[in-house]
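Q: What does the predicted 3D structure of Putative pre-mRNA-splicing factor ATP-dependent RNA helicase DHX32 look like?
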Amino acid sequence: LSSLLDKMEEELECPNSSSERRYFPESLDSSDGEEEGVLTCEDLELNPFDGLPYSSRYYKLLKEREDLPVWKEKYSFMENLLQNQIVIVSGDAKCGKSSQVPQWCAEYCLSIHYQHGGVICTQVHKQTAVQLALRVADEMDVNIGHEVGYMIPFENCCTSETILRYCTDDMLQREMMSNPFLGSYGVIILDDIHERSIATDVLLGLLKDVLLARPELKLIINSSPLLISKLSSYYGNVPLIEVKNKHPVEVVYLSGAQKDSFESILRLIFEIHHSGEKGDIVVFLACEQDIERAYEIVCQEGSNVNSDLGELVVFPLYPQEKCTLFKSIDDTEKGCHVYQRRVVLTTSSGESLIWSNTVRFVIDVGVERRKVYNPRIRAKSLIMQPISQSQAEIRKQILGSSTSGKLFCLYTEEFASKDMRPLKPAEMQEANLTSMVLFMKRIDIAGLGHCDFMNRPAPESLMQALEDLDYLAALDNDGNLSEFGIIMSEFPLDPQLSKSILASCEFDCVDEMLTIAAMVTAPNCFSHLPRGAEEAALTCWKTFLHPEGDHFTLINIYKAYQDITLNLTSEHCVEKWCQDYFLNYSALRMADVIRAELLEIIKRIELPYAEPAFGSEENNLNIKKALLSGYFMQIARDVDGSGNYLMLTHKQVAQLHPLSSYSITKKMPEWVLFHQFSISENNYIRITSAISPQLFMQLVPQYYFSNLPPSESKDILQQVMDHLSPISTMKQEQTMCEKCPETTEQRCVIQ
């Protein structure tokens, strides 16, 4: 204690010290009849997690925590945690369950001296995981990255001694590949259950078996009230902690607004601003295109608003980008003496990203654009449909609990009761399951392959996933993971992309393939363009174009970013360079992080790594071979010479995206390999590179080619194969015989 007091004296003498911690509570700043600043050993209350005295901020935050609705249930929760293996906590958004329950679990683990491990809490969104970790570390008065940390894809802010970890659900799922029974943890908390992500649903099923194998393990499930009945029937008779959180919200249904919802939104924003009522506005739109459109209009019209009413500041919130919630927004008020009303434009994905207590108005369009995967054609469809009643309730709960708020629904009560489903659809029933099936095959090695899902996926989706893994050589003839499949599962990527990386080891282009994988995994590297900047942006982007296609253009962009990063010492200068070239700085920085982790995996599993040779004709060909090895199921042909591309696997016609290098240069190749395709009003294929039919036929699995539906494109490819050298044809037939001794139809039945 004397050494600790010496340290405190040093920091008090050096107010500019790097440590921001104050080691005494506010109540001890002065004492009755005693000299100021004199502390005794008895005055110091030590933090049991790090052994240091609590700071004054801890006591301030403790008062705020005690005002949270969930705090009243602490005793009940701790009692149930001691006596039961599973506890369900039901509460609305902003009741405090995501921040307080993990801290109580950490106290429980501390009380038993961490003999069964620490605490881990899952989140669906990586932004939420980071922000919760920062908030909880602050409330516990400990250091982020030490006692409290977070794990999100391609970023780990934890140590071996971290007590409480926040992570995305897919990160905990991946941890089960190396640690199937999660022996490092004594308490597992599944949060955001109502989001129904694939990883959360898989964890719910797998943890049933883990709990049986580890009776000492505790499982806490945080859920919205609407999902409680389904969870109770799924897990049986388990304790339920219900958190009451009633706050006044005025709901206004605008019956005529549904026909012209966009105009109604804009009108409402300015009516609220002109009313003079204080508070920020959150607007839920159907899709990101609506965000961009609304942002331009509100910014333009907002500049003409009377300055006496205050400034109208608009924030587009794109959930796929690593935005810091309201941190950057709150910074705008610092040093600003003019009232600012903030307008946040977002979609359904942003429901759990709104944390500000200053929101007083929510505008809800009541519909969303969802991506629904069709296994028959191996493509996603963008479908406009009503949100669920549970989503509508969450949007209502975003309004601050301290004072009344207003929710403007651009739909009728009848629409809400009849057209809206009670619960949000499970992602497992609408998504491509290939990655999930690869994970389940990997887990089967540990005996956890039989998973009891809350909502079983469609058999057709499972069959398509198995078929794709078979085409990618991830399965052996018995339907188990092959050596290829085991290595593919080590990469936190789509299986097709993992296969391309493995193929690049054979074709001596690993360096280039890792760059492509990082760039397509990170958010879009091109910035959102303000109106009128399109021509200037295209001029800048032309400097990066590569004649071989978009995958090669991405390599050029990344290499240019790397060169600038090495030449410019200031991070601000690099960010300025990105702005000048209309590139997304945070996306490129994320691509750098992703690439570093992929390279680390390559080295860890000791795969061959050739020196980069980007730019040579041989290297260009090798990159295409590696891409084709993984993406042979995503090929299209220009059927009329005017840019109408017909998919090889189905009869959908699409066009190249306007930002494709071929669209910019007006040179349309006949055959292309593409990375993304969604069926919508604009059927665009994105990230494309030209290939030759000869190269395709040399690399495509023959049993996949034989299963393609009849088409003119298939006939052309058949003619190409007939003209290939007898040696290569014989090799293909031999591969087909070794891989597929039965007919394809029989193989599907066996699997």
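A (community wiki): The structure tokens above were generated from the sequence. The longest strand covers residues 671-679. The CA atoms of residues 39 and 589 lie 47 Å apart.
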